[in-house]
Amino acid sequence: MAMVNLETYIKVRERGKTMQEIQERKCLSEATAYCWEIGYQCYLKKMPLDKALEVIDSKKTNDKLITIEMGKLEDWPITHLRNACRKNKVKGYTKMSKEELVQEVRKTLKKFGEETK
């Protein structure tokens, strides 16, 4: 699987590929695809990413629940589980089995009040 960075994403989008096509072909999570798409839209509008993030942060959700479909944690690749643990400062994650990583990610999600199935 080839790595995708914003520059690569922009080049592929300029060749006419849709976000969904890139997501499927490059095996990107939906969240990653949306992040790259935000970067692409900023590029088209010549808007700095930090300005776009300010706009996003300033929008109110009107107390509506926002749901992001992450799929079953058990189906996540081990590299994604490790990244989640690393970013949330889970100690000893590099030596954990996939099952232990799933448990740690689940604990982290519960800590932030997220429901997991």
Explain this structure:
- It is a single chain.
- This protein folds into two domains: 6-58, no CATH class; 73-111, no CATH class.
- It has 117 residues and is mainly alpha-helical.
- It has six helices and no strands.
- 10% of the residues are buried.
- The longest helix has 16 residues, at 30-45.
- It is globular.
- Which percent range describes the beta-strand content? under 5%
Helix share, percent: 55-70%
Approximate shape: globular
Number of strands: 0
Supply the number of structural domains: 2
Q: What is the average of the pLDDT values?
A: 80
What distance lies between the first and last C-alpha atoms, to the nearest angstrom?
A: 28 Å
Contiguous helical run count: 6
Structural class: mainly alpha
- Poorly predicted runs of 5 or more residues: none
The radius of gyration is 17 Å
Quaternary assembly: single chain
Order of helices and strands: HHHHHH
Outline the biggest β-sheet. none
